[in-house]
Every structure is written in C-alpha cells, then in structure tokens.
Amino acid sequence: MTDKMKIEEIIVVEGKDDTRRLLEVVDADTIETIGSAINEDILAQIEHAQEMRGVIIFTDPDYSGEKIRKTIMEVVPDAKHAFLSRRLAEPKRRGSSLGVEHASDEAILEALRKVVTPVFEVDDYTEIPRQVLLDYGLIAGAHAKERREKLGDELRIGYTNSKQLIKRLQMFRITEEELKEAMTKVEESL
C-alpha cells in the first residue's frame, strides 16, 4: 500500500500498540490514553485536540475501552467515534485481550471510513420505545447479548449492554425504521 489514507482528526487510542498498528495502515496523529489510567492531563490534551482538529475515539471493543470512551465523552461530547466489532479485534494468540492492535488493515480502514458523530439537536427525533427493544430481544432473553453485539456492528455504534444500547441509539439518533432494517439483517445472521 503506497498511499495511506490521511486522517485529519487526531485519533484517540488506548496505547502504544494501537498507535503502532494504526500508523502501519493510515497517516494520522494519535493521543494515547495509557489504557484506563486516563488522567486530567490527557483529557485536557484531547479537549484541545478537538478544538484544533477534531478527534476520533477509537478504543478497544471491551469493558475498558467503553469506560475510556465514556470518560472522554463527558469532556468532549461531540467527538467522532470509530468502532471495531469484537470479532474483528480478536487477538491471533490465545490469552491476549481484544484490541485495535489485532485488527486487519481492512477492518481498521473500514472503521475509520465509517466514523460516526453523535447528534445532540433534539428537533424531530423520536426515542425508540423500550418495548420495541424488548420485542427484538435486545434487552432480555436468551440471546440478547449476541443480538446487541450484532446490532452494534450493523449500526456501527459498538458493543453495548442493555442500558448503553438505549443511550447509544439516542446519541446517534437511530430511528425505529433504521433499527428495524438493522434487526432484519441481525435476524438473518443468527
């Protein structure tokens, strides 16, 4: 690959391995959170980066990565988000944890091409009723976790637990129609 995709925004990752891996695939600058040890100095750096060039949060699809994403969103609510599915972030060696550093070139490029930005204007957005999520088996039931994981991949909103799912659907203004379309694909894949 001769010409790497150039990313204008600064990409926020968890550590050195993520930065190393991203730079093999794209031309970008990164800020490392040093895992979940993210501190006030790093948050200030991310806030400044957002003001200057914008940031893309690209953390691992695990509990720690979601915790970091949530912490950053409190300081920079309008940051963009890139998501990898848990499947695409699986390590080649057993015993290693999920991570951006394990993703293929194609998976990284796809995640960065499909960056999503939260929307905060409440104009005409209608929240999806909780009952609809229950009816789709996303909140409770035998395969709810698996359904949420596949839905998160389909909608590019990342893996969520039940409570986070409701927040992410609101944050990214996913409509009931978009949910229905995505769930049709999820059902086909089950």
Mean pLDDT across all amino acids? 89
The beta-strand count equals 6
DSSP strand (E) fraction? 5-15%
| End-to-end separation | 35 Å
- Class based on secondary structure composition and strand pairing: alpha/beta
Which ranges are low-confidence, i.e. pLDDT below 50, for 5 or more consecutive residues?
none
The geometry reads as globular
Largest sheet: 4 strands, parallel
Rg (CA only): 17 Å
Order of helices and strands: EEHEEHEHEHHHHH
**Strand order, largest beta sheet:** 4-2-5-6
Number of helices: 8
| Percent helix | 40-55%
What does this 3D model show about the protein?
- The radius of gyration is 17 Å and the shape is globular.
- The strands form 2 sheets. It has a 4-stranded parallel beta sheet. Strands 1-3 form a two-stranded parallel ribbon.
- The mean pLDDT is 89.
- The N and C termini lie far apart (35 Å).
- The chain has helices spanning 16-25, 40-52, 63-75, 105-113, 130-135, 144-155, 162-171, 176-189; strands at residues 5-6, 10-13, 26-27, 30-32, 55-57, 80-81.
- By secondary structure, it is α/β, with parallel strands linked by helices.
- Helices cover 46% and strands 8% of the residues.
- Helix 6 (144-155) crosses helix 8 (176-189).
